[in-house]
Amino acid sequence: MATDLTERLAQAATIEHLRQTVRLLPAELSLVTRDRWDGRAVGTSFVDTCTLDDRVPDAPLGLWLGYLVVGGTRPARDYLPEFRSAWQYLGWPVEYAPNVTPNVVKATTPDHYTLTVSAASTGDLGVDVASPCFPNTGRGGADPLPPAIPHP
Known about the structure:
By secondary structure, the protein is an alpha+beta fold. The protein has one domain: TBP-like. It is about 20% helix and about 30% strand. The protein is globular, with a radius of gyration of 15 Å. About 25% of the residues are buried.
């Protein structure tokens, strides 16, 4: 657990990791807050416990954010190698097994954030980010999420 991390700091780092990613993607791509995924309504972000047992008192928390990738002119899966290349360029270890999970690429940042890009059966392309766990006392204080992270 990152004892000096808070929800506010986790959100700021998450947004910065997404901005770094978008800078390295094709110019037509941007990110927008996600309200749907694979045909279902979903939330954009949430804070939840990092433990499997929700009854643990004062359990450490984690932040999860989701954005849709918009502006693509090709099928969603065609952009997965672009994400892999961007994350490799940033020096982040990447997991991509197109023969096993052809619609998912995952990276881990040096500060232990996990970014996952997925292509849905509906044609949506989404990026999810999970923060490292932080103390329960670090909850709150986060700014509203930017509704979009445009390509610079």
